[in-house]
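Tokens as discussed.
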């Protein structure tokens, strides 16, 4: 995106080759999704790195509280990283069988549907076991399975 600010232009680096301003770019890449969306590919890795948070052991109570809140927020994102929120409809007489398959945080959420004999079941599933669990759910009669990403989880 090109935006004008005072007498200069701000430019997202990934679009530069596409609009003829460069033959290539040097960029910090985490997922590579902006490269792909701009029809670019990584040709050389200059350096691999990771971000670290280093704190002083003798922080004031106010700074410690700020650090604790920051760590709490980061942790909520990390916990959610490989999880999916799954909602499904199931025959009411199959709820126990289906719930026995689902891990859930404490247990799956079970809600009656407006249609007699049907129930909505909600649960959180680890991505690595997702397809295995979904196959079992379908065998037990679950249908209308909706899968949503989880942005944050506070445990």
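Sequence:
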């Amino acid at each position: 995106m090109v935006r004008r600010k005072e007498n200069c232009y701000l430019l997202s680096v990934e679009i530069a080759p596409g609009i003829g301003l460069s033959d290539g770019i040097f960029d910090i890449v985490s997922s590579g999704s902006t490269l792909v969306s701009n029809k670019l590919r990584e040709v050389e890795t200059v350096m691999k790195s990771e971000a670290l948070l280093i704190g002083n052991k003798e922080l004031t109570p106010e700074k410690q509280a700020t650090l604790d809140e920051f760590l709490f927020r980061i942790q909520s994102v990390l916990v959610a990283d490989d999880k999916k929120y799954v909602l499904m409809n199931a025959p009411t007489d199959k709820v126990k069988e289906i719930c026995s398959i689902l891990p859930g945080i404490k247990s799956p959420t079970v809600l009656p549907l407006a249609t007699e004999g049907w129930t909505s079941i909600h649960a959180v599933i680890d991505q690595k076991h997702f397809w295995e669990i979904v196959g079992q759910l379908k065998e037990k009669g679950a249908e209308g399975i909706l899968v949503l990403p989880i942005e944050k989880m506070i445990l």
